[in-house]
Structures are given as C-alpha cells and as structure tokens.
Amino acid sequence: MKLIKHTYLLLIVLVTSIASAQVKFDAKVSKQKLGVNERLRIDFEMNQDGDNFNPPDFSNFNVVGGPNQSVSNSWINGVRSFKKTYSYFLAPKSRGNFTIAQATINIGGETYKTVPINIEVTAAVEVPKDPNNPDYIASEGIHLIAEISKTNPYLNEAITVVYKLYVSPNIAVDNWNELDSPRYNDFWSQNIDTQGQKVQNGTFKGEDYRFLVLKKVVLYPQKTGKLEIEPLSLDIALRVPSNRRDIFGSVLMTRTNKVVSAGNSTITVKPLPEQGKPLDFSGAVGNFTFDVTPSKKELSASESLQLKVAVKGNGNLKLFKLPKVTLPSSLEVYEPEHKEEVNTTLAGMQGAISDSYTIVPQFKGKYPIPSISFSYFDLKTETYKRLSSDEIVLDVLDGPINNANANSAAVANNGKQPVVLNKDQFAYIKTSTNFESVHSTTFFKTTTFWSLLLLPFLAIPLAIVIRNKKATRDADVYGNRIRKADKLARKYLSSAKKSLGKKEAFYIALEKALHNYLKAKLHIETYELSKERIDTLLTEKQVDAGVVKDFFSILESCELARYTPIDIVTMQEDYEKAAKTISLIDKQAR
C-alpha cells in the first residue's frame, strides 16, 4: 500500500511539473530603442488562461493606450492552441535607459513572471513614429539587404552580391515587384538562379525574422578604384497588424505598400601588381591548369589532326584569351574553334575553355610544335604563375617530299647544288613555223578617225557645264562643310563598319575611331583623352552640349558592350549614331 501511495504522489508531481513546463508567459516590445517623441508597444502573451494579471509599474512612461485584451482559440489536428494577450501603448517621459519591470499572472495556482526588458530612449527623431501607423510598422519590419562577399577585391577577382528580404513575424507579404534593377557598370556580371528558394528563419539586428534570398549575382570588376554597386528596389504589397480586433478578439490586418532598397554600396578594386607581371599576361586571374594535346602524333600527308589548347580551373575564364599556337609553315592550319564549358556559381566561374586547331600536313617529315606558355595571377599566393606545355613532334609517315627542304638539306650537307638533267632541254628551239600573212587596213577617213577628231570639240560644252557646277558647289560653304564632315566620319568609321556583326572587334574599332577623330580634331595626345578635357575643348569650340553628351554616351556604349550581349541591330544603331555625332561636331566646331 505504501508503494502504491508513493507511486501516485510521484505521478502527481510529474504531471504538475510537465504542465508547469508547458506554460509560457512572455513580454514583447515593438522596439528596444526609440526617440523621446516616439511610441512603444508592449504585449504580454500567455499560452494558457490565467487570473490576477498584474502589469508592471510603467513609472518612466505614460500609458497612451491599453490595456487591450485579445484571446484566440484554434484546433489543429485535434490539438488545441490558445493565446491570450494584454497590449499597452507607451510614451516615454524623458531620455535615458529604463527597465520595464516584471508582469505577473496566476495560472493553475502558480504565479508566473515575465523577464524585465531594457529600453533606451534617445533624443527626439525627425519624424515621430506611431506604432499604430501601418507605414511605420512596415518600415520597422521589412528590410532589404545586399550582402557583398568582398569589398576590396583585385581586378577580375570574383565577388558575390546576395540580396535578402527580411520580414518581421507579425507582417504578411502578399507579393512584390522589382522597381529598379541594378546596372553593374564596370563589372562583368552573371545572375545565379534563385528559383525554388524557401523562406528561412534568422535574426536581424538581434531580433527574430524570416528571410528569403531574392537574387544572387557574381561580379568581376573590370576597372580599378572605387566602384559603385547600384541598389535593388522593390515595391512590396503587405499586411500589418492594426490596433483593431474582430469579434473573436483576433487582431485585424491592414493592407499597405512599402518601397524598400538595398542601398548603394561601394567597393575598392585593387590593381594587379606590376612586379613580376609576364609580358604575355592576358588578364587571367584565378587558379588554373594548362594543357596542349594533339588528337594524334603519327599520320599521313593530307590527313588532319586536332590540336587542343585548353585552360581549366576557377577564375575569370570568359574574360581572357588563350595563347596562340606557332607552327611550321609547311603545316596548313585553320582558324581555331573556341569552346567554353563554364558554370558560374557563387564561387565564380568554374570549368574549361579551349581552342581546337585543325592541322593538315602537306609533306612527309617530322614537324616540331614548340612549347606554349600560359601565365595567370594566383589569388591565393598573390603572385604570377606560368604554365608551359611540352614540345610535340608530329611524324608524317606517307606523302610527297618537300623538294625545297630536300634541296636545302643537300646544299647544307655537301655544299653543292645537285644538277637535274632533262632529256628535252633543247625542246625550246623551233624547227618549223606557221606564220600567216597580215592584211593592212587604212585608218585615215574612217568613222573612228572622224569621231576621235571631233570628240575634243564636243567635250568643250560638257567641260563648261562641269566647271559651272563646280564653281556653284565651291561657293556653297555650308554644303561643303556638311560633305566634308560626312566624308571625315566615313573615313574614321570605315574599319568599324567592316567589323559589323563581330561585337568585340566592332566596338574596339569604333572606340579607336572616336579617339583618333578627337586627337585629329582637337590636336591632343592620347594621354589627354579624359572626359573633363574633351568636354572643355568641345565646349570652347561651341559644340552643342547635347552633341557632346551623345559623344560620351557612345564611348560608354563601347566600354559596356564588351561585357554584355549585343545584337547586330544595336551595333548598326551605334554606328549610325557615331557617324552622325562626328559629322555634327565637325560642322559645329569653330
């Protein structure tokens, strides 16, 4: 009997302790730092109903609202969920650091207390914030953050920008629209797919939040110095809690819209060191391996082989050129086929790029392919490294012999030129002829004779007409200036026009044409081609500001187009705009 009695007592104690452990009574504030002219909301929440609720003494605050009481009951899968809340709205009486003391309540015969909360009250803010204002609640509970992996990278070193949207638990987001996408000027950029991202739990400035990754971008800076990363802006439709409640005591939500931005960010790009930079360095930055492999080393003449030059690794694979192959002149070589197998992740570009050369030997013999070198800047050691391939010997087994090479070898070995005999060496002497008699004709007084005689006299009126038109055209000063300007534009832009359809070659030629034109027109050197200097000189020559602006926009297009996809229609438009702008500058310049 005693054993059974003690067992019952133990069960009662366990049940009581479990029930006590499940009771929650917490105090939550809208913020822990506010201005003296702002308002503070505090909620006392419990998950079981209780009696004798006793709020703390708000001695350092004026109670401007409350207590508001709300109760919610719900059943989910047969499990009851209960929440009861007492809410107060407080106005601080003065600046300082204050503590909101414990509140108490009696639940199931036990007294429960909240944890004291520290509040910092600062000087008045510019705009008083009302905790009941939906815009204020949205601004306090919605944050768009741009996380940048590195703010001081090297030129052509990969950095990542991750955009996260943080949302307070008491705010519901319906949808959002992208108002303004950042344009990554002076960067090569690649977006990373973020579809299927799930909402995650996290903290923001020490408070609990939910967040969603909206966008991931990999950037490779193409200039040194301070570069701006433009902000991402969103228009968000959301619902925030109000101070009104329905008949069941649940808080009513208010719909509102909020525009948030990630804010401008600045990074400082370091130039690659000059010390130890190889002469053949083409801008490769990262960690790479280098291979030169032929598809076969033994073949017959007129057969083809593939010589593959490949770079593999992690780095700016799409932003540099592979080294060229130097081959003997007796090997016929075709333009290489460029191939890229590159995957861009948050770690940057990874994969391989290669050039495949098709080689066709014409004659029998052995042909050495010299060693090929590739240099890159290693980010881990911050030094330049060089990789070189082994010499490759191609053995052409069957085919005609190159006589020029054979004769040269004979002269080199014996010092004498071999004599080649031909049994028909006297065949050029003719022993018979097939001459035919030629009948002469008289040219005098023929139709051709009289036509040629009268032609100079008939040309005199035509010459007079041409001379008069030339004089009229010479007197047309404005027209001559237009024609001269158009001719000058065509002259400088001729090489660019030939490259239409080839993006990189076209924009390099276009930029070179614009620079050469300015150097000739303004009598300046290359080192003087700064934006400020050009603007000053063109303004002094009375060129319209709009024309100057168009000129600079074309230069910016040339620079931007190297790192973004461009179609032939855009190239044609840029060409026509450049020709028009050069023509206008030449006409307006005094």
UniProtKB/TrEMBL annotation:
<feature type="transmembrane region" description="Helical">
    <location>
        <begin position="449"/>
        <end position="466"/>
    </location>
</feature>
<keyword id="KW-0812">Transmembrane</keyword>
<dbReference type="Pfam" id="PF13584">
    <property type="entry name" value="BatD"/>
</dbReference>
<keyword id="KW-1133">Transmembrane helix</keyword>
<dbReference type="InterPro" id="IPR025738">
    <property type="entry name" value="BatD"/>
</dbReference>
<protein>
    <submittedName>
        <fullName>Protein BatD</fullName>
    </submittedName>
</protein>
<keyword id="KW-0472">Membrane</keyword>
<keyword id="KW-0732">Signal</keyword>
<feature type="signal peptide">
    <location>
        <begin position="1"/>
        <end position="21"/>
    </location>
</feature>
